[in-house]
Every structure is written in C-alpha cells, then in structure tokens.
Amino acid sequence: MTTVLRAVVVGSGISGLTTAISLLEAGHSVRIVAAEPAMSTTSAVAAAVWFPTHVAPWERVSGWGEDTFGVLAEHAAAQVPGVIMRESLGLYREQPGEATWVGAVRGVRDARADELPPGYAYGLRYAVPLAEMPRYLPWLVARVRALGGQFTQRHLQSLDDVGHGADVVVNCAGLGASDLVGDASMYPVRGQIVRVRNPGLTVSVRDELHPGGRAYVHPRTADCILGGTLDVGQWDTAPDPAVGAAILARCTDLVPALRGAEVLEHVVGLRPGRPTVRLEEGERLRSGARVVHNYGHGGSGITLCWGCAREVTALVGQPPPPGGG
C-alpha cells in the first residue's frame, strides 16, 4: 500500500505543474508554492515544441525525453487543449549524421526535394508534440486543482520556508534555484522570439545551423513562433529590435510564405541553464522534510517535463538514502 506523503512543490512552471500532477496521481497530497502564477513563468512564453535543446547529460535526457514524448502524444490523441502532433521539417545544408533524438520519434524519413526550400540539400520529416502554452498551462493548473492540489503564491528565501508540515519538498524552481539553494552552476539562457500571425502554415521548420543563427518556425492555431536565440549568461529581458529583425529575416529564408506576415510581438524569456539537469535527493531540511531537486532543464522544459516528473514520483516513493540525504 502506498504511503500518502504531504508534498510541497516549489515552482509553477511546466516542471512544477507536471511534477505536482504526477505526485497527485500517485496518491500524495500536494501544495504548489511559487512566487508567480503559471502564466507569468518562462514556460508561458516558450515555443514548447518537443526537441532536446541545451541540456545534459544525454544518458538521462534520452529516457526523460522519450517518456515525455509518449505522454504528450497521448495528450494530443485525447485532444488535451493546446497539444498537437506537429508535422516538422529539419533542414540541413550538409548531409546530417544520425541525430541523437531520433530514437524517441517514430516515422522519421528523408525529406523529398520538393519539400526543401532553396539553398537546402537535405532534410528530415517527422512529427513531434507541440504545446501551445497559453492553452496547455491553464489545463495543467486545472488538472492540479481537480486532483485536490493547492496553490500558494509566495516568495521564498529558502526551502526551509516550506518545510514545516511537509514530508517532502520538491524543488522545481528553475532559474530561481540559483538563489533558493545557492546553486552557483545555474545560469540564464536568454531566448528572444518573434510572434507573428499565422499565414496558414501547418509544418514546423527548423535549421539549427543557419549562418545567421538558430532559426525555427513553429505554427500554432492563430500565430507562429519564430526564433530564436540561445544567449548564454545574459539576463536582459528587453527585446532587441535588431535581433528580432534578424530572426524574422532568417525564418523567412526557411519559409518564404512568412514574407509580409503581421508581427504581433517580440518576446524574451530566460531558460534555466545548468551543466546538467539536477534530479536527485538532497539534504533534509531543518524540519526533517526530504528534498528532491528537479531543475536545470535548459531549453528542454516541455521535452523532459513528464519523464522527470515520473522519476521524481518514483524517487519520493522509495526509502530515503542512509543518513536522510
């Protein structure tokens, strides 16, 4: 019989919400404590297409990514709001090697010549999950509430602030873990994107090695997310108009149909960078509550969220290590 634990999840982004749902579905009681609501987090402005980006170590990322792919594919089939399987085209100017992420994606094939824009000799066609965060995040919040989870908006100075009365505290604070637990290995990965009105596109297109910088076009219901940058160590959240213009130009190289598309806004988000994802049991709090860390997902929050959430839930259900962590 499963022991019901009182869990506090710190953070209301994609990692915090999916971790809370996984713990609730396992029968535990859960309270999410976060400085801001879900729609104010970095997750809310994410392009949110399944694709491992700026994250390590691969020997763990691959498993988390494959598990998450499966859950999101199920959500797409069940018509969960905002989640679809998006037909995609990866572009290459030179013959690509075997992509590490291909193992999780079924039906990858070489692109035909008529599917390639000018200047490209190679491409891969495949379908991956895409989550429109303005629709998916509210569904996740509603799912937490439906399962009996609670939300508290509060700024924390340390995890000890929420240790009293908890059996386990799960740290999903993302970039906030830098201050919350003194993790000096955390760093921001600034991402600037451009949101334009969708001119009728239905295929995501990306070129990770575009001469002008990373380029991707992700169509959603009414708009397209055009990106983007991976600016390691930059904290500035003000959009740069010149960077936005460059993004629009190179994305139009990929998808000429974007020419003349109405620009809706320029957006900047700070991804939670770390040399490796931290998913492990930590030292107990002063209250005696266990701590499990789940943060540092870089640009792969949507790609790893459900796999990491399930591993957290499995870890919480195991006896704590000797010495209490």
Give the SSE layout.
Blueprint lengths: L5 E5 L3 H12 L3 E6 L23 H20 L5 E10 L16 E2 L11 E10 L1 H14 L3 E4 L14 E4 L5 H4 L6 E11 L6 E4 L7 E5 L3 E5 L3 E2 L8 H14 L8 E11 L4 E5 L7 E6 L5 H16 L9
Helix pairs in contact: 1-3, 1-6, 2-6
Keywords:
D-Amino Acid Oxidase, Chain A, domain 2; Rossmann fold; 25% helix; 325 residues; 6 helices; 15 strands; alpha/beta
Summarize the structure.
The protein has 325 residues and is an alpha/beta fold. It has helices spanning 14-25, 58-77, 133-146, 177-180, 241-254, 301-316; strands at residues 6-10, 29-34, 83-92, 109-110, 122-131, 150-153, 168-171, 187-197, 204-207, 215-219, 223-227, 231-232, 263-273, 278-282, 290-295. It folds into two domains: 1-83 and 130-186 and 274-325, Rossmann fold (3-Layer(aba) Sandwich), CATH 3.40.50; 187-272, D-Amino Acid Oxidase, subunit A, domain 2 (D-Amino Acid Oxidase, Chain A, domain 2), CATH 3.30.9.10.
Description:
- With 325 residues, this protein is α/β, with parallel strands linked by helices.
- The protein folds into two domains: 1-83 and 130-186 and 274-325, Rossmann fold (3-Layer(aba) Sandwich), CATH 3.40.50.720; 187-272, D-Amino Acid Oxidase, subunit A, domain 2 (D-Amino Acid Oxidase, Chain A, domain 2), CATH 3.30.9.10.
- Helix content is 25%, strand content 28%.
- It contains six helices and 15 strands.
- The protein has helices at residues 14-25, 58-77, 133-146, 177-180, 241-254, 301-316; strands at residues 6-10, 29-34, 83-92, 109-110, 122-131, 150-153, 168-171, 187-197, 204-207, 215-219, 223-227, 231-232, 263-273, 278-282, 290-295.
- Strands 3, 4, 5, 8, 9, 10, 11, 12 and 13 form a nine-stranded mixed sheet that branches. A six-stranded mixed sheet has the order 6-2-1-7-15-14, with helices on one face.
- Helix 1 (14-25) packs parallel to helix 3 (133-146) and helix 2 (58-77) packs across helix 6 (301-316).
- It is globular.
